[in-house]
User: Which sequence fits this backbone?
């Protein structure tokens, strides 16, 4: 029998695959998980409150980076409600008074075998927080964690762009990205320095 | 024309899709991300992440009580290290202490009270244990009176020990028993030396230059390892005066013997003979110290002196297997390369449980000047009683061996911290046929299986604990081990248990309506604060100086922070009271000497081997140890594994046994399977047992 | 030209065999610090994982029996480390800044060629999935990554502690470490201070002085591995232990 009228099936298939692969796949690949609480960095760093990055994300006595602050840090100011916000009420009632840790979702979680010391990068190399964490510090609300369904890691590690062709504004944290900056700054690239 | 989809169409489409897919991220991301996922699935462990905190505490596994610094995430310790600047420069935990935070997670932890139900095959859960225990107590009191109720405490000297003694007093006079151990030997010696009540002896090694040890495993975690080991193992090049020489007189080829400066492989049971020989040389040559204590002994102990002068060096040489020259050489070293000290191992290290040996050891120490003020044998005061126990009559300690057989109806064993195996055979002998044994222990180990009722206590770092001083610390000392883990395991608070069991309604009433171990410890701290000599050392001090706390609550807070309390020592008082060694001891010694001589004359008989317990070795207590310790005995050949017996190859050949063979090892202690290992260093007529059942047993056994 | 002017270190270790009593504290401290797994009962001496293992060796003289305990760990060979040369995956890197021969289990594919190449038998393979009882697994040390089954691991001179020390120094603005800041777990645990650890490139360090002593020797020096673990002993026969063939009966007990 004759084949179908000349539809370029090959091209159609290829186009369909390309469309699905480039447009649909990336959004399926990542699942969005909301943070447990609403938090506005912009508000807390604004002039009315006046906090800086290191007030909550600082170094402890042992020189370790505190990372995400524990509930106690929030409780320093929010022992009781200071606004009428519904979000704050949830913080005070569910976490501060109940003495529970807030289980924040971490955007930059690395595997166990990666050793990243904030101390050498923040204190010695004087790298700005925004260089790796983007403008998170100015955000009005916490964006949801986009977690790769297959690998389990955050989208922030690979980068927002799936192809990684263009040098994007959003920071990336794969090994190659760390190595690229290290090479540029002529700092160590030995395995021992970054791996546990 | 009909248009049907042909195979060619499908293939064209699919190949288009395939080629197109190659240019999308799909296959590459799938491969990459799945590879990443497989690296992180359930087959890789994930350590806890979070903020690190530090908790200073003490290891409560043995009386040394090494100071530890725990590194914790939340309230879970993730690693620990010693605080060497604490405990006067002695904080060096042994392999067991280094895995202290793993004890609580052992799979053999007991969860809930258990009874031994042999009919149903072992330990079964018991929900109504308290009522049953009350009933047993009443029955025991009715059948045998208060004297038939006893508590066996392997760690005497704690505040909890005083609580046991007061509890027994509240029954109307129960028995407080102490199994043989290094500390119990010292206590007995103190009594024999006529020291006032509440005083005990301790060794002072810091100025000791020659140490004679009768099988004491001095290089294997004896005393406080962080203090003893550097004393014995500094390097020559640092100056000969820096290091103490070790002379080991022991039939067992343990590490202390192998590494000693001089090892005399004496025949089993000939310790007294060796000591007599050394004493003979010292007295003959006048190589003894002329202190008042010496002179007093030489005038009072006429029986003993006549025994010593009757003992010929030939006989000693025959009995011990050591030549006369070597005996004289040891005597010379002890007297001329002093200050010297003579110590004796406890029965779990292979020394006969023979009181005469301790007397001889004490005599030698006096003759060598150890009891001088600059000497190596010191006296120290016991800790004062906590306030809450002062109004109750506390019974005195008795040694386990000294009570009559079959005299106990109810025995409570505090097995919460066992650092050496309990002599279960001996314990069972002391029980009446229908007597009951109740054990307090965190694990389902050998102790639990040997008892009728097992009550779970807290594992290290889960509950409260205290540390007293080891035999080599000549100062009274008190420190805490506070809970770190948030535990879900239910465990019994021993103080609460005692209060509920006591028939006296006012027992521990000073602690309030809900007495607890923590409150007892607080009370003890307050009692210590009242002593003028009390000083507290914080964990991290630049100069290691102790200072007096500003108030009793400040002292308690400091103790919670990991500080330690120290009291002053006491100077040696002159000996008053009954004769030190005594005529009966001289008789025992004479008999011991005869026995040793006779044994030596009889050729080695392989049907009757002398069983010598090897006190050290992983699992030698019979209680579960954290799994990592298997690296020492199973994944390497460094330490002995429990359940091993060592034979001389000659002996094994005669008995038809091969290395690695499993045998049934029987004796009055019971039976167990053990593996045979051959070693040239074991005497042909003995058998060295690294098993827990045989611990504390010494003697001849017929092999099966 | 490096922007950070960090001096190159050569970390080395000296173990005093006249002091070692074979207590095994170093083995336990290492196991806790580096998250070593407990192998199942069928793992014996051959398949157990002990990054540092203490061996007992008896002296050759029959008249004067003598014993020595030797803690054996990765000898951290020099530039021509045999394991680094044979690895097909480049999973072993001799770090330029510290001299540490660093094993990367995440790169390893488990061919065990390095285990054959290592003349000191200091490399260990995960024959089973590393597993701990759950309540012990929560106590794992976060500074060292646990491994999976099928990869080789070995002592890295406590790289977890090196990282921690560097981070602490960096938080204070320093690039250089003081000698006491970075000490491996075995050295910290040894009750007789038999283990000394430090930087050979620092002439003031204790280790630099110790390795020049007459008592110092290294194992299998003739192979040219240039190990950075030195042993100290005043006994002549101990200096020759790597040259003595053990012909004694293999079934004889090794720990009594």
Assistant:
């Amino acid at each position: 029998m004759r084949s179908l009228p000349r539809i370029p099936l090959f091209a159609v298939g290829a186009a369909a695959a390309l469309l699905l692969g480039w447009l649909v796949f990336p959004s399926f690949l990542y699942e969005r998980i909301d943070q447990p609480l609403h938090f506005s960095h912009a508000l807390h760093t604004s002039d009315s409150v006046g906090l800086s990055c290191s007030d909550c994300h600082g170094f402890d006595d042992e020189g370790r980076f505190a990372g995400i602050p524990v509930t106690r840090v929030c409780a320093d100011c929010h022992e009781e409600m200071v606004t009428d916000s519904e979000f704050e009420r949830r913080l005070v009632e569910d976490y501060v008074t109940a003495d529970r840790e807030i289980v924040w979702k971490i955007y930059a979680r690395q595997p166990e075998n990666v050793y990243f010391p904030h101390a050498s990068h923040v204190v010695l190399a004087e790298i700005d927080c925004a260089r790796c964490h983007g403008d998170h510090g100015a955000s009005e609300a916490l964006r949801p964690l986009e977690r790769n369904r297959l690998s389990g890691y955050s989208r922030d590690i690979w980068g927002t762009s799936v192809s990684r062709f263009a040098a994007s504004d959003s920071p990336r944290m794969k090994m190659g990205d760390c190595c690229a900056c290290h090479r540029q700054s002529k700092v160590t690239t030995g395995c021992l320095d970054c791996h546990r | 024309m009909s248009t049907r989809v042909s195979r060619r169409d499908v293939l064209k489409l699919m190949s288009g899709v395939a080629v197109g897919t190659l240019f999308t991220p799909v296959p590459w991301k799938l491969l990459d991300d799945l590879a990443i996922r497989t690296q992180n699935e359930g087959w890789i462990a994930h350590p806890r992440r979070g903020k690190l905190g530090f908790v200073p505490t003490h290891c409560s596994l043995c009386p040394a009580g090494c100071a530890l610094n725990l590194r914790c995430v939340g309230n879970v310790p993730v690693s620990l290290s010693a605080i060497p600047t604490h405990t006067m420069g002695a904080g060096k935990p042994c392999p067991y202490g280094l895995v202290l935070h793993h004890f609580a997670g052992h799979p053999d932890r007991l969860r809930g009270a258990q009874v031994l139900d042999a009919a149903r095959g072992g330990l079964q859960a018991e929900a109504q244990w308290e009522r049953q225990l009350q009933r047993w107590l009443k029955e025991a009191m009715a059948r045998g009176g208060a004297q038939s109720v006893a508590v066996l405490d392997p760690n005497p000297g704690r505040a909890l020990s005083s609580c046991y003694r007061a509890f027994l007093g509240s029954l109307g006079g129960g028995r407080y028993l102490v199994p043989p151990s290094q500390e119990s030997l010292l206590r007995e010696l103190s009594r024999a030396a006529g020291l006032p009540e509440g005083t005990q002896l301790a060794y002072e090694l810091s100025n000791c230059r020659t140490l004679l040890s009768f099988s004491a495993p001095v290089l294997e975690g004896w005393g406080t390892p962080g203090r003893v080991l550097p004393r014995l193992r500094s390097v020559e090049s640092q100056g000969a005066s820096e290091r103490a020489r070790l002379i080991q007189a022991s039939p067992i080829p343990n590490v202390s013997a192998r590494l000693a400066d001089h090892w005399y492989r004496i025949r089993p049971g000939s310790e007294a003979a060796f000591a007599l020989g050394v004493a003979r040389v010292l007295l003959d040559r006048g190589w003894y110290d002329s202190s008042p204590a010496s002179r007093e002994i030489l005038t009072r102990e006429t029986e003993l002196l006549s025994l010593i002068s009757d003992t010929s060096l030939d006989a000693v040489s025959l009995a011990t297997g050591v030549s006369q020259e070597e005996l004289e050489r040891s005597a010379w070293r002890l007297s001329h390369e002093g200050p010297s000290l003579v110590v004796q191992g406890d029965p779990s290290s292979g020394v006969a449980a023979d009181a005469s040996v301790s007397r001889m050891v004490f005599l030698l120490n006096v003759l060598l000047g150890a009891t001088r003020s600059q000497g190596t044998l010191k006296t120290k005061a016991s800790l004062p009683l906590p306030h809450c126990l002062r109004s109750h009559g506390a019974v005195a300690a008795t040694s386990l061996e000294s009570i009559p057989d079959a005299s106990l109806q109810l025995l409570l064993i505090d097995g919460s911290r066992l650092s050496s195996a309990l002599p279960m055979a001996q314990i069972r002998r002391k029980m009446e046929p229908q007597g009951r044994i109740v054990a307090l222990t965190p694990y389902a180990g050998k102790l639990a299986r040997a008892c009728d009722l097992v009550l779970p206590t807290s594992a290290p770092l889960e509950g409260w604990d205290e540390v007293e001083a080891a035999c080599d610390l000549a100062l009274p000392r008190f420190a805490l081990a506070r809970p770190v883990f948030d535990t879900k395991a239910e465990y019994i608070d021993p103080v609460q248990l005692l209060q509920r069991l006591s028939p006296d309604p006012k027992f521990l009433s000073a602690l309030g309506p809900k007495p607890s171990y923590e409150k007892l410890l607080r009370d003890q701290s307050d009692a210590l604060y009242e002593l003028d000599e009390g000083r507290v050392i914080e964990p991290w001090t630049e100069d290691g100086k102790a200072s007096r706390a500003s108030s009793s609550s400040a002292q308690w807070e400091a103790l919670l922070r990991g500080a330690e309390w120290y009291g002053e020592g006491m100077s040696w008082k002159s000996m008053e009271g009954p004769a030190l060694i005594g005529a009966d001891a001289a008789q025992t010694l004479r008999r011991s000497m005869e026995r040793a001589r006779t044994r030596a004359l009889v050729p080695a008989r392989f049907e009757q081997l002398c069983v010598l317990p090897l006190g050290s070795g992983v699992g030698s207590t019979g209680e579960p140890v954290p799994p990592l310790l298997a690296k020492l005995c199973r994944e390497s050949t460094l330490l002995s594994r429990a359940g091993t017996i060592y034979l001389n190859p000659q002996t094994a050949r005669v008995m038809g046994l091969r290395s690695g063979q499993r045998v049934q090892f029987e004796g009055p202690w019971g039976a167990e399977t053990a593996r045979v290992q051959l070693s040239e260093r074991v005497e042909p007529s003995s058998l060295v047992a690294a098993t827990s059942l045989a611990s504390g047993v010494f003697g001849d056994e017929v092999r099966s | 030209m490096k922007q950070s002017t960090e001096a190159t270190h050569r970390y080395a270790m000296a173990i005093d065999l006249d002091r070692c009593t074979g207590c095994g504290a170093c083995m336990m401290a290492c196991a806790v610090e580096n998250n070593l797994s407990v192998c199942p009962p069928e793992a014996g001496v051959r398949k157990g994982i002990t990054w540092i293992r203490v061996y007992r060796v008896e002296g050759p003289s029959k008249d004067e029996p003598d014993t020595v305990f030797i803690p054996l760990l990765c000898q951290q060979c020099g530039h021509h480390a045999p394991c680094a040369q044979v690895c097909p995956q480049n999973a072993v890197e001799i770090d330029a800044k510290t001299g540490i021969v660093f094993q990367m289990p995440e790169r390893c594919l488990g061919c065990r060629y390095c285990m054959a190449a290592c003349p000191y038998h200091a490399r260990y393979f995960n024959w089973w999935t590393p597993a701990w009882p759950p309540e012990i697994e929560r106590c794992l040390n976060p500074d060292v990554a646990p491994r999976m089954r099928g990869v080789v691991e070995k002592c890295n001179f406590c790289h977890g502690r090196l990282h921690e020390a560097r981070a602490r120094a960096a938080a204070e603005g320093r690039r250089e470490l003081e000698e006491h800041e970075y000490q491996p777990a075995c050295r910290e645990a040894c009750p007789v201070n038999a283990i000394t650890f430090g930087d050979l490139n620092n002439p003031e360090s204790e280790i630099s002085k110790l390795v020049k002593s007459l008592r110092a020797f290294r194992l299998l020096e003739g192979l040219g591995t240039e190990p950075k673990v030195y042993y100290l002993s005043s006994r002549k026969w101990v200096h020759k232990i790597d040259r003595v063939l053990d012909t004694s009966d293999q079934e004889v007990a090794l720990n009594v």
Chain A touches chain C through 24 residues (CB under 8 Å). Residues 9-29 of chain A form the longest helix (21 residues). Chain A is about 40% helix and 5% strand. The first strand of chain A starts at residue 30 and ends at 33.
